TrEMBL record:
<feature type="domain" description="HTH lysR-type">
    <location>
        <begin position="1"/>
        <end position="58"/>
    </location>
</feature>
<dbReference type="Pfam" id="PF00126">
    <property type="entry name" value="HTH_1"/>
</dbReference>
<dbReference type="Pfam" id="PF03466">
    <property type="entry name" value="LysR_substrate"/>
</dbReference>
<dbReference type="GO" id="GO:0003677">
    <property type="term" value="F:DNA binding"/>
</dbReference>
<dbReference type="InterPro" id="IPR036390">
    <property type="entry name" value="WH_DNA-bd_sf"/>
</dbReference>
<dbReference type="InterPro" id="IPR005119">
    <property type="entry name" value="LysR_subst-bd"/>
</dbReference>
<keyword id="KW-0238">DNA-binding</keyword>
<dbReference type="InterPro" id="IPR036388">
    <property type="entry name" value="WH-like_DNA-bd_sf"/>
</dbReference>
<comment type="similarity">
    <text>Belongs to the LysR transcriptional regulatory family.</text>
</comment>
<dbReference type="InterPro" id="IPR000847">
    <property type="entry name" value="LysR_HTH_N"/>
</dbReference>
<dbReference type="GO" id="GO:0032993">
    <property type="term" value="C:protein-DNA complex"/>
</dbReference>
<dbReference type="GO" id="GO:0003700">
    <property type="term" value="F:DNA-binding transcription factor activity"/>
</dbReference>
<keyword id="KW-0804">Transcription</keyword>
<keyword id="KW-0805">Transcription regulation</keyword>
<protein>
    <submittedName>
        <fullName>DNA-binding transcriptional regulator, LysR family</fullName>
    </submittedName>
</protein>
Amino acid sequence: MTVLQMKCFVNLATTKKLTDTANSFNLNTSTLSKSIDHMEDELSAKLFHKKQNKLELTNEGRIVYPSLQYIVKEYDELLLYMDRFTSTRRTAVNAAMIFHQPRMIELLLGFSKQNDDIDMTITEASATDIQAMLDTSSVDVAVIYEELLEKKYPYTFPIRRDKLVAVVGRDHPLAKRARISVSELKEETFFLFKGDGLMYRFLVHTCISGGFVPREAHSNLRINTIMECVKANEGVSLIIENTLNCLDRKNVVVLPLVENPEVTLSMFFPVVYLTETHEKLMASLNGECQ
């Protein structure tokens, strides 16, 4: 039994017409009919019967259909997978990146420069949008904090652990402390980054875990503006420590939290098989970020 025969069978089970399936595979109807006959001989079973000018699966046909459909699907996916290794065409890689990750963007651009056959496109987006991209496979690789996602994905590779810290003004009463508990901030006014819904939820839940609901300044501010508000002693913030590397930290104090809340920056690949490009990218980022 050939793959073409199996594909014809699966297609015919859907179209129910020899002419439609024959046209799909550029065959004449007599050739297609003989192909189905050969399958029936090999399986020692009648696969189709006529019903009101259409071909319907017999009981035996319905039994073998799921297995043949699976084989065809796996075969097509295998060809697609192998094409990544054998094709001489340039490879396009669409990468999605959570906000405030300049080092990761630098690494991805460096990877693209080192691999002339790869065209890299990078999009900065919220965790909510990136999750949608993963679910629809509209992105080849996503770099995002694993704890923010609402579901698991088969190919997930940790890059590094990042800590959540408190940021206060230089003259804040807690500024001289080596570390604080989240609960010590319960009377403060918070400026929290709301540009990413899932990250914002994580920040609020951190406060709730400390025994309080944060009292917020009702402003949807950019991260740089939040830092300016903290510098002016108008309130405090909770920020991923690594994010501070791309911000002006003058006149603010970064305080580790006793609870030590952490998130895992990871790579996600929404694919059935990892390609050579995926593995090269994974090795490149892991090698520099450990």
